[in-house]
Known about the structure:
The protein is α+β, with helices and mostly antiparallel strands. It is 59% helix and 13% strand. The chain has a 4-stranded antiparallel beta sheet, sandwiched between helices. Strands 4-5 form a two-stranded antiparallel ribbon.
Amino acid sequence: MRPGMRPLPSEQELARAEARIDRAVWIGRAFAVALTAAVVAFFLLTAAEQSWQYLAYPLLAGVPLVFGIVSAHYFRSAHVELLRRYQAQLVIRTSELQEMASRDELTGLYNRRHFYEVILTHLGKARASREPLALVLLDVDGLKGINDEYGHQVGDVIIANFARVIAKHTRNTDVPARLGGDEFGIIMPDTDKRGAFALAQRLWAELEEEPMYERDGKVVMVNVSIGVSGFPWGGEDVDEMIHWADADMYANKISRRLPPQPVPADGPGDFDSLPDDYTSAV
């Protein structure tokens, strides 16, 4: 919040303000009725000489009384309506601020704090329902070298393009996040091992086949390491799941430095052939 700005009122404060408006209206009505009754009584006791005056004075006094009561009701309704509109705007603004606070500025993906809040929530739901939960970690290999050679502006463009590819391949129910630097994570509710590896395969294929930077004749390709884990097959708590995915991602990164191995005909693209303890995403 900027200096000098007043904090937005809470919903409880707005409710108290509406209650104060109601009290003020009722006090005003009671005062108007009492004052009118006193004036009418005074005239009836001091000035009424004929029987018709006993009827005329109350009727004449009743006109401004009714007008005052109706006006008070109208102004009360108008104030409450304005108050509720402000309350609705407050709720929307609060939601927008919460959304902004949970997003990474460069990529538009969720940030690290939101990622850990969500995975704890989804893991609790998965434990209760015994539904699967998948976790995918991704890392851009050699980003420091790219920054050193081309500059951090190019590195930022690569990170942003990397994030767009991730967002393109994730569902509305998934939670893609930038965990920091060149590391990303995806939470996949109600997704088993097969679904997690299928997403990892699609991401790996596009991220390594498409240039992440292409401008003024300069084309930069990147390598990506991916690790997969999940509940219950990759750990019983968040730390175990992340440790398993980190280990899988590190094994994926190290395997790139080894001599290439022959790929069998029913290789990683055939997920029916994967053994249960297979952890490499590629």
